[in-house]
Design a protein that fits this description.
By secondary structure, the protein is mostly helical. It has helices at about 30-40, 40-45, 55-70, 85-95, 100-120, 130-155, 165-180, 185-195, 200-210, 220-230, 230-245, 250-260, 265-285, 295-315, 325-340.
C-alpha cells in the first residue's frame, strides 16, 4: 500500500473552540499547556541560532516527551481530566505518538467525541447564532482526524501499509470522512493518493478535480481560490499528485500560486522544475500540453532548468535535509546538460533578446527520462 508521498506524514490537528477543554479551575486550559511548552527551556534551545544539531535533537525529543505528559493530564484516568475529555488532546497525542497503533487509537477517540458533539449529545459552549460555524469546525476536525488515520496506514515507514487490509481500511476511512463533508478538498486529495496507490489514475484525477458545486454567478477562478486557501504543504502535495496523474497544466497552476506565496520553497521549485521537465518530455515526443502552445520543447526544458537551478541554490543555502530531492535535481540537470539545454541568460533591463541561447538539435538522441 505504501507509495511515495510528500514530506508531511501526518495532518496537523486543528484546534478550534469546539475542541477546547471545558473551563475548570482544576483543569489547565489547552492554550495554557501550549504556552507552557513554548516557554520551556527546550523551546529556547530550538530557537537559538548557535545551537548544535545534537543539542537541538535532544531538546526536541525532551520537548515531545513533556508534551505527551502535559496532554495526558487532560485524559482519564488523570484526576483533573474533564468529562468528556477535549478531542484536541487526543489529536495532539496522535501527532506526538511514535507508535502508529497508539496514534490510531487517539484519532478514533477524538472522532468519537467529535461525532457526539456533532449529534448534539454533548454540552457545547457556543451560542445559538454561532451554531453553524461551530458545526463546520467540528466537521473539519473529524475529517482531518480521518485523514491522519489514512496517512498512518499509507506510511511506508510503518508495517501498517503492508497489511492486507490497508487498502480497504483506507477506503472505509475516507468514505466516512466524505460522508461528513462530501466536498472537503483535503479528504478528496487523500482519496486521490489512495487511488494512485491502487493504480487507479483516472479515479485519482477525478478526485483532485472535484470541487463544491458553484452558483452561476461564481467567479471563474473560484476553484483556484479554494485551492489557494489550503495550507502550503497540502498544496505542494496536491501538485505532486497532479503531476503523477499527468495533469501537468493543473499542477503548474497550483505551483505558480505556491511560489507566489513563498518563493523560497525548495519543494515548490523542485516540483515546478520537474513539472516543466515532464511537459518538455511530452512535447519532445510530439504530444500536446495545455498552456504550452507556441513554445518549443527546448524553451520548456530551459524553463525546467531555471527552476531546478533555483531549487539547488535554495537547497544548499537553507541546508535542506531532503537529500532525495537534491539527488533527483542533480540527475535532471545532468540530462539537460547532455541535451545541450543551458540556463537562460542573465538579461539586462533594456536588453536580452535571447540570441545567446544554445539548444540541442531535434535529432538529439539523449532520452528525457
Amino acid at each position: 500500500m505504501g507509495r511515495t508521498r510528500a514530506k508531511a506524514k501526518k495532518s496537523a490537528p486543528i484546534v478550534t473552540n469546539s475542541s477546547q477543554p471545558s473551563s475548570s479551575s482544576a483543569t489547565p486550559a489547552l492554550s495554557a499547556l501550549i504556552d507552557k511548552l513554548k516557554s520551556s527551556s527546550y523551546s529556547r534551545v530550538l530557537a537559538r541560532g548557535d545551537g548544535s544539531v545534537n543539542e537541538k535533537n535532544q531538546a526536541r525529543e525532551m520537548m515531545v516527551d513533556d508534551a505527551r505528559e502535559l496532554f495526558q493530564t487532560l485524559l482519564p484516568p488523570h484526576p483533573t481530566a474533564p468529562t468528556p475529555p477535549p478531542p484536541s488532546a487526543h489529536l495532539y497525542l496522535a501527532q506526538l505518538s511514535a507508535d502508529p497503533h497508539t496514534a490510531l487509537k487517539h484519532y478514533q477517540a477524538a472522532i468519537d467525541i467529535l461525532l457526539t458533539q456533532l449529534k448534539g449529545k454533548a454540552p457545547s459552549p457556543i451560542q445559538e447564532d454561532e451554531q453553524d460555524e461551530g458545526e463546520d469546525e467540528v466537521k473539519s476536525n473529524i475529517v482531518r482526524a480521518y485523514i491522519g488515520m489514512v496517512e498512518l496506514w499509507m506510511d511506508p515507514e510503518y508495517d501498517l501499509c503492508f497489511d492486507p487490509a490497508a487498502s480497504s481500511t483506507c477506503d472505509l476511512l475516507l468514505a466516512n470522512a466524505l460522508q461528513i463533508d462530501p466536498y472537503n478538498l483535503e479528504a478528496l486529495q487523500s482519496l486521490a493518493s489512495v487511488r494512485l496507490s491502487q493504480e487507479k489514475t483516472e479515479e485519482a484525477l477525478a478526485a483532485l478535480l472535484t470541487f463544491p458545486p458553484s452558483s452561476p454567478d461564481a467567479p471563474p477562478a473560484r476553484d483556484q481560490a479554494l485551492v489557494a486557501a489550503l495550507p502550503l504543504s497540502v498544496r505542494l502535495a496536491r501538485a505532486k499528485l497532479l503531476l503523477e496523474c499527468g495533469a501537468y497544466h493543473d499542477a503548474l497552476d497550483v505551483l505558480e500560486n505556491v511560489l507566489a506565496s513563498d518563493d523560497t520553497s525548495v519543494e515548490g521549485w523542485y516540483l515546478m522544475g520537474w513539472g516543466w521537465w515532464l511537459v518538455a518530455e511530452r512535447r519532445k515526443e510530439g504530444g500536446k500540453v495545455e498552456g504550452s502552445e507556441g513554445l518549443t520543447w527546448e524553451d520548456i526544458a530551459r524553463d525546467s532548468r531555471d527552476c531546478l537551478e533555483t531549487c539547488r541554490t535554495l537547497h544548499e543555502s537553507q541546508s535542506d535535509p531532503d537529500t532525495p530531492i537534491l539527488e533527483h535535481v542533480q540527475e535532471l540537470l545532468g540530462t539537460l546538460d547532455a541535451l545541450g539545454i543551458l540556463p537562460s541568460p542573465v538579461q539586462d533591463d533594456e536588453e536580452g533578446d535571447g540570441d545567446g541561447w544554445e539548444d540541442a538539435s531535434d535529432d538529439e538522441d539523449v532520452e528525457m527520462s
